[in-house]
Amino acid sequence: MRNRTRAAAGAVGLTALLATTACANIGLEPPPAAEPGMIAELRMPSEANGATQGLLNYNWLSPNASVTTWLFEPLMIRDRFSCEAVPWLATGYEWDGNDRMVLELREGVQWSDGEAFDADDVLYTFNAAKEFPASDRGGIWGDLYGAPLETVTALDEHTVEFQFAGPAVPKTDDLLQTFKMLPEHIYGDQGDPTLFIDEQGVATGPFMPSSYNGRRLVLERNPNYWNADEVKIQQLSLEGQYDANSGALKIRGGALDLYRGDIPNPNRSVVDPDPENAHFYYPPDATTVLALNNERPVLNDPAFREAFAYALDREALTERSSFGIMEPASQTMLLLPVQQDDVPERWRGEEYIPYDPDAANRMLDEAGYERGADGMRVDENGDPLSFVFSVQAGFMDIIAMADVVVRNARDVGVQVRMVTTDPNAVDGMQRSGDFDMVVDFVGGGCQRARDLGSRLITSQISSGDELLLNRARYADPAVDELVAEWGTEVDEARAKEMEGEVIDVFMTEFPYIALMYAPSRLIYRTENAVGWPSEENPYPIDQLIRIAPELRPPGSDEED
Hints:
- The chain is α+β, with helices and mostly antiparallel strands.
- The chain folds into three domains: 19-70 and 205-283 and 521-547, D-Maltodextrin-Binding Protein, domain 2; 76-194, Dipeptide-binding Protein, Domain 1 (Dipeptide-binding Protein, domain 1, Alpha-Beta Complex); 284-519, Dipeptide-binding Protein, domain 3.
- 27% of the residues lie in helices and 18% in strands.
- The chain has helices at 2-24, 119-131, 172-178, 184-187, 244-253, 266-271, 302-310, 314-322, 357-366, 396-411, 423-432, 448-451, 477-486, 492-509, and strands at residues 42-44, 76-78, 85-87, 90-95, 100-105, 149-156, 159-164, 207-212, 217-221, 235-238, 258-259, 278-281, 284-292, 386-392, 415-421, 437-443, 512-519, 522-525.
- The relative contact order is 0.13.
């Protein structure tokens, strides 16, 4: 009887799954037949803001853009794994000193209406950002992370010079990949480019607009794309916006080929029901850290911070908050293993802080934080070591992390109390410095004088309405000088030395305590396309357009 009951229950579950799968595919329009060696169609969620309500606008600068990925392109793309600049609309660049960059453009590129792409389009894109600051998405004309841009000049049709008012090397990636090039012959007479409603979508990208019915946007392959021979996708269909549950249903049922939303446990939600076709790739995108307020008593003691780092069970933390999918993070703040080559030699083999409560207790004893009669530790004045962990209400992964931290702290005699509150209130605490500890994220980019250095400099300590990057409120004049010099350095060997010195600060003073990696998410199916990034075929996906030349139809001669 028991076996029959289980069989019946299994049949009901299978029937429900098949029913939901069928529902997920209702209303899908079949694409045109695929040509040999081509992918007929890939389906993915809409990139449009849910508030657009059928408005058509291909302008990537608009907050209501219908699509942001597949039409307009950057000059180059920084590979976050290797930190190499991947040629795109530009084939290379060179810093002449630290205040002048010369950029070489790819020849033979056309806009999708047949007009040639050249230096005039680059000049228009950047000069429009000067005239209309809302379009300066990279802050190139401002003084953040380096001197402002002074002039942009065409040396010839395919060579562009950027002259800055002073050292500006940390602005490199904002210039190369934050800006997407605009067609001067379309946008040049429209005034503020952020206000222009672009219903044509003339761009340089691998796809161009085909049809739109108010819900479903279809993009077709651009046959004159500069890299058209490598793009094997005939059509992209973008429709719908999905939360984690509906996204999992759609991807599991085959109604979507790609989904990038936050499905917390993709193994159970997507892969287990269809392991042959459903897959995910969650490479590290940033380091999730515990930011301790370095201006507070006890928390301002590097010895305490180091001991606290050894008290934390990162395996339990990632199991609770990511179902064990994401890995514990390196205290170097580098994304490992993909950036392993950048770990300074002196820290090889010591990149991670182990869970070692015995070592934590020993360090706390040696630092003078004695245990009281109740087993809890006190400071030099005999006051209990008691801190508040401020957590954003509703952020279930962070709440799960905080619960582990609270229990681990108690095990070594430190009282930590988790307090959940409105996310805006937590931001306000960080702006004012009125907090003990919060969760933060250290970016894993390749402009490390900015991505790592800015986390330690006093100019990035918030004191007003703006929430700046030095959330731990760490201060050391010598580090300020080091990071300032690092940001002006164009000699790669010297820059690498200074990077190592900044990593030393993270490894020895623990202004932030690395917890686990935060993911860049990609969930996909392989019955229509292969070549997606994976553990066996890793490549970064922070710039999603990189998948366009990588994908192939299953069974093709070019399939890996």
